[in-house]
Fold:
Amino acid sequence: SDPYNDSVISSNEPSTTLVAKGLSISATELDIHEAFRQYALVKNVTIVRDPLTQISKGLALIEFNNIQYATHTLNAAQNMLFQGRPLKVSYAKSSFVTDTIAFASLAPNC
Structure:
């Protein structure tokens, strides 16, 4: 089963953080930042990685300064193609954001 299914990562409740699913494992934080800043000012991007291998899980958290920016981007990025792949973008569930940011801060900086 998918540990990153929609019930775990997504919420209908507006948030300052979006989750993008469907990224290639080669996508970087900078690539994602560049793609999403066409919609609104991006505060931070965190790729969800395997804690042991540091390989991307094909998901990223995209953080904005306010809910208006996040909502505008969510609406604008529906059916978005990123590096030739369709992305699924939704509000991120707060518990998933907290867990992911905590894990990212523990990861060794390569």
